[in-house]
Amino acid sequence: MEPFRDNDLVAGLAALRPAARPAFAAELDERAAAGFPRRSSLGASPLSGLRARLRALPPRRLAFSAGAVALAAVAAATVVVAIGEPGTDSNLSSGYGDGVRLSERPNAAAGEESSGFLSKVSPLDSEAAPAAKAAPSAGGSSGVEQSNFNGSANYNSSFRLDRDIERSAEMVLGADAADVSKDASRVFEAVHAHRGIVLRSSIHDGDEGEAGASFELLIPSARLGDALAAFSGIAEVRSRHEATADITAPTVRTGELLRDSRAKIDSLLNQLSAAETDAERTAAEAKLRAERRHGAYLRSQLSSLQRRANLSRVSLRIESGAGPTAPGAESGWGVGDALGDAGHILAIAAAVTIVGLAILAPLVLIALLAWLVNRTRIRRGRERALE
Amino acid sequence: MKGRLGRSRGVNGTLVATAEEAPREADLAFDRLYRSSRDDVYAYVASMVRDTAAAEEVTATAFERAYRKRSRFDSRRGEPRAWLFGIARNAALDELRRRGRQAELAAEPADLAAAPAHESAEESERRLALAAGLATLAPRERELIALKFFAGLANAEIAAVLGLSESNAGTKLHRAVTKLREACDGAL
Q1: Residues A240 and A232 sit within 8 Å (Cβ to Cβ)
Q2: In chain A, what are the domain boundaries?
Q3: What are the pLDDT digits (tens) for B45-85?
Q4: How do residues A170-202 score in pLDDT, each as one tens digit?
Q5: What would the CATH number be for the domain defined by A98-249+311-327?
Q6: What pLDDT, on a 0 to 100 scale, did the predictor assign at position A296?
Q7: Which of B58, B96, B124, B128 to mutate to test the interface with A (most CBs of A within 10 A)?
Q8: B130-to-A10, A69, A150, A164, B117 alpha-carbon distances in Å
Q9: Which of A116, A323, A322 is nearest to A216 (CA)?
């Protein structure tokens, strides 16, 4: 028999070519016409359906969808973080930055930190601190009435209905450089109109940002609210803080000590008049001098406390140049604020993205490694199937 | 998507499209690919799995997978037939892995025994010699023969299916054909 030639080989292989059964071919045509419906759709879980849909998506559309989902997640997280961030509401909505906040700080903080002069309390005044801490944080003039009386037993001994309240305020006004002198004059007028005292004042002329004025004032506490209202009418208020501290306890205690001291002085005077020897007289005079010094110190303390209760210290500054709100602007929110807010939002979005990536990156890396390992395993298994 | 039309005979199906929307380009291209490749895919798969029922199952699975992925096909990365046969090859190898069988590319013994009535004794002897020669080839060589002569792929398409260069695929195919001829001559 002749050996195989190329034509024989091709013809022979064609004869050996497997052919599909007509029934199978017809069935496959039907399925093709129906768009190859999934044969195992009855037992398929929603997850497998989703996976099949994702696999069917073109890579570009899949990447676009994943990017959109990631963007939406970052936006949602940014909104949540921005809303939940302390202080952001005022920064974003009011545009005042640290702007007008009426006594937002607790009284204790105001009494010990915010008002510099309030921190300079004498040992006797130290009892004011717990009293101030006991006061609610509502602040302002209302804080006086809302002070609670949960102090110690020592404090209860000094319980009084008419409280001695020390009040202070800080205010910053914004004005044009050309108006600083005029506004400073109006400050003086307002102080005098409210029977206040100007402890210290300083006025600087100059260009925008350089011109300004500062005042340290004492205003009768009963007229503090009116005075602040008058100051607010002079120029745009850029910031305003008020603080209160209850100094009833040290006042009462100092008064009691002063009464004791006076009684002791009377007693010493009696001893002095009854002294029969020089030695007794000398000793009584020495005690009397010491007690009088002590009494003078207590009177000074009591006077100081009463002055602090009667006169409120006000620190007032007039600034020129761009502040949180441009002087003369009708709206409280300008382009600068918008840029600031935009930067703030972008910073939050960047932080959210970084945190998200820090969480997701290891997970994605692990998933990628698992996918690669699985793919390699399947490929090797397929190649081994032919060996 | 460029397809070779007319290779498969008797294909009557047309991919479905709703009345509201015209069939997309990907659907039309897949329809052309299906019509031209149905019988070729079956012949190749049947050669791989050597079981009629399994071949039908794998062929259907291959077309189903290809249909699901049709929008992901990128014509810049290769010919559609090579892409389709790559899917069919993976499906066939998965079936072989699942069954734990070794691939054998010769036709089923039952098919070989079913000789045509008009066949002469010499033709029958040559056919049996060819089947025996196929059986002596290594599985990878038999797969090359199946892709070339059963599925009718060009060397470039075979290279794409197997992940080889075209010249390498051509060389391997030439060696396989030479080896098959020698085996057939030895069997006569």
Answers
A1: yes
A2: 98-249+311-327
A3: 998 888 899 999 999 999 999 998 888 787 777 889 999 99
A4: 999 988 888 888 899 999 999 999 999 999 999
A5: 3.30.70.260
A6: 94
A7: B96
A8: 10, 59, 108, 117, 19
A9: A116
The CA distance from B164 to the nearest CA of chain A, in Å, is 14
Rounded CA separation A18/A40 (Å) = 27
Place of tokens 């002791």: A264
Whichever domain contains B142, its CATH number is: 1.10.1740.10
Residues 6+ away with beta carbon under 8 Å from B187: B128, B129, B132, B133
The pTM of the full predicted model, rounded to 2 decimals, is 0.49
Q: How many domains does chain B have?
A: 1
Cα–Cα distance, B53 to B56 (Å, whole number) = 5
Give residue B140's domain range.
Answer: 25-108+116-187
A positions 354-383 inside 8 Å of B (CB): 381-383
Does the beta carbon of B25 lie under 8 angstroms from any beta carbon of chain A? no
Min Cα separation B70/chain A (Å): 8
Give contacts of B 100-159 with A, CB under 8 A. 101-103, 106-108, 111-112, 122, 125-127, 129-131, 134, 139-140, 143, 145, 149-150
**ipTM here:** 0.77
**Contact yes or no for B72 and A39 at CB 8 A:** no
**Smallest Cβ distance to B34: which of A12, A17, A32?**
A32
A214 bridge partner residues: A202, A317
